[in-house]
Amino acid sequence: MFDLAILGLLDETDLHGYELRKRLGDLPGMGLAVSFGSLYPALARLEKAGLVKAVTNRPASPAPAAPMSGSLVGELAAFRAQLRQAGNAVREAGRGSRGKKVYGITDAGRRRMHELLVDPDVTDDRTFALRVAFCRNLGPAERLELFERRRTELIRRRDLRRNPTRADGRVNTYLRSLVERDTAAIAADLAWLDSLIVEERATVPAAGSGADTQPGGNP
Amino acid sequence: MFDLAILGLLDETDLHGYELRKRLGDLPGMGLAVSFGSLYPALARLEKAGLVKAVTNRPASPAPAAPMSGSLVGELAAFRAQLRQAGNAVREAGRGSRGKKVYGITDAGRRRMHELLVDPDVTDDRTFALRVAFCRNLGPAERLELFERRRTELIRRRDLRRNPTRADGRVNTYLRSLVERDTAAIAADLAWLDSLIVEERATVPAAGSGADTQPGGNP
DNA sequence: GTCATCATGTAAGCCGTTACATGATTGC
DNA sequence: GCAATCATGTAACGGCTTACATGATGAC
């Protein structure tokens, strides 16, 4: 669950651990703060597995697209301005890479990310949120499948809920209110999901032709 | 977080582990299934700490109220019927207490539960849900404080959210949708909380006189 | 008599945390 | 030069999960 977040962020741009942590915190679905104590070991593990690698000095993706002006001084100023404008994002490059380790994703890492995005065995809420956050890396059909699997899961939960009545018959007002809130939250989530699905279907014109998605059929 | 759930349920009625697990699963805020691997050790730990104790044969609260008929056979039949009628709730007594361990809460356990209900240091979502589930054990002022602390926490989260813009300026539709859903969920939660607070205030007539709740003032 | 369910537990391990230790860079 | 922040790591531990081991009871 952690790995997916790291790989997903590194797929967008190279980052060092400290900055990575901040962005991890901004991702819905991750606990608000991610600790270094888990981040660094995770990075080390991923590096060892060849899924990410330490890159030396590259300011990553947003670098190009500025046409050469011919003036060296102007060039430098433009570079600085670009850094400033991008804010914290690429600040790491400003200090050289002495004490830092800037990580980038590898091809193997991208394959692994894809695996994590589509794995049907993991169905917890946080993972789903992360998957949505990075699902632009999926094909339209895969995305649809992701959404629909989630939909099935939510419906299962909604219908599975036995209301916690107690043996002595007394009703607990607060507990009931809590359950109602929970039900409402699931309903809202389902509505949101449905809107996602509708939008996605509009993108994939003729569903049913793809091998990945089989609408309806299965239990 | 686990302890609170166990103590709260045992405060309602005596239960053995297996049945406890089912009810744990019905509680919002707990993962849908709680594993025995954590439940039994937790129970053992709580027992060792004197917060719960194994009770021998009592079918707990709903037991009595059946007058003696004088006939031994009739007695037995009535007993059986009672068991059947009460459903899963007290079924445990039906097998005698040979292989089973029925637990009940102790006075120390109730004090501990109260501690867990009011502890201001724990602010995670699941714990809050559990607290609401069992907050009938709190006084009105304590309940109000619980709700208002949660409210503060949710507002903090809502305002703290930096939107995860990326260095390259591209916007990720899915991520944005996800963040919006998240914001909406927090808003809905806040609305629910506010309704709880309003109801609670109606119960506690003159707020402001109590030492526990100070509305507004603090940052 | 055997199978499903009820029931209790142990062992290994994963995933993540807090607390600790260390050092570089920048601003004042 | 000193403090705050940036930055990277290690160690110990906690909570919860899965998988495993065991056995009683009731239904058929």
As residue ranges, the low-confidence spans of chain A are 58-97, 210-219
Tell me the major beta sheet of chain A: 3 strands, antiparallel
What structural class should be given to the helix and strand makeup of chain A?
mainly alpha
Q: Give the termini distance of chain A in whole angstroms.
A: 27 Å
Listing every helix as H and every strand as E from the N terminus to the C terminus, the arrangement of chain A reads HEHHEHEHHHH
Which quaternary structure do these chains form? homodimer
The average pLDDT value of chain A, as a whole number, equals 78
What does this structure look like?
The structure is a homodimer of 219-residue chains. By secondary structure, the first copy, chain A, is mainly alpha-helical. Helices cover 55% and strands 5% of the residues of chain A. Chain A is built from eight helices and three strands; from the N terminus they run H-E-H-H-E-H-E-H-H-H-H. Chain A has a three-stranded antiparallel sheet with strand order 1-3-2. The two termini of chain A are 27 Å apart. Mean pLDDT of chain A is 78; it is low at 58-97 and 210-219. At the A-B interface, helix 6 and helix 8 of A face helix 6 and helix 8 of B. Chain B binds a DNA duplex (28 and 28 nucleotides) through helix 2 and helix 3.
